[in-house]
Here is the input.
Amino acid sequence: MKRRSVFWQTLFGKFAAALLIACFSYGESSAQYTFVETIGRLDNSQSVVDRGASSIQTSDGGFLTVAESAALQGGSTLYIVKTDDQGAVQWSRTIDGGSELDKVIAAGGGHALYLMNGLVQSWGVNINGQLGNGTTSMYQPMEAPTLEFNSILALAGGQAFSLAVTSDQMVHSWGANFYGQLGNGTTTDASTPQTVLDWTSQPLSGVVCVAAGGIHDVHPTHDGHSLALTSAGSVYAFGSDYSGQLGDNDGGTLQRTLAWPVRESASSVLRNVVAIGAGSGHSLAAKDDGSVWTWGENASAQVSGDGIPTASGPGQTAQRVAGIAGAVAVDGGDDHSIALLQDGSVVYWGSNYSPVPPTIQAVTTMPGLPSITAIASGAAHCVALDNNGRVWTWGTHDLLQLGRTVAGTYDFTPGLVQTPV
Here is the structure.
């Protein structure tokens, strides 16, 4: 699932004219996984020589570009590269799976998705058709859904529903749809892929990344929303808005069955986004300037990041989280949020979940971690991958989700996942 990270000091080779923004959110609350590794800051004299049609201009005048290097051992590798306005490389990350974009994984509330050899494999709970094979009764691994071979770029799993981005940059969805989280204009469950539509009822296009949320409960309420990030840096949301997790600035609407743009204010949409994440009732985005923006449920200050819980409701807009700079990835759980910074550190905020009553934390750097290259959040636990390929976990361990020996039902000190013997 995860490859060992390598720091390459050599120049990039030929740059491919592909179009993709790399982002991920992974775990019980939301899941999407397209890159896992950092190759570090390169010398500014190393420039992107062939920007081609793959570039996305950022607010600072620079560019995000997908690059392919054929000079590395084992064949070509895809990278997402950030350059300044002169073309000098500022940072870059590898995209997991190389040029075939394989090994994309996603996990929902009770099901899992895995992209292998161009086909989606799925397994787990299927009551709402979240496995996408046209039934609601099968639980074992299977090839699903019926999407074109080798067309999947990204996957996400929410509470009993699934999302996929295909090579035409369209979004497809299947599974539970009580709140319109499938984005197809209905609230009817679907066991086969549906095309996500925008607010004009036309297929939502230009999407490069998706995230899915939902509370983890046997009987979820006001539960299930979806996010889609476009190559232009805009974010669209659909599904439940009971806690304001759609960020649509419309207090009179509790749910949407079509994708609507997330707003930064009443008069402007959220722009220049390069990564998204979804918690149970809140949403997160990182902009190309390294700032983090959040909206939705704030009962544990998981949105505000200031340690002060507030009541939440529909009709919110995205707000910048103070005290965070250099963010490259974000994710959220039931009551907490995390962000990965460019320097390899991880910050967190919101509820510690246990003990009872839980403590509420303002934005704080997670101690005890080495340089981290990827993060993921479950309902009440977190996972991080370091630059040596090791996996660290912390949080609740009531279902053994930390993957290591823990004295009790939680451990808020990061520890290494243990290798089975």
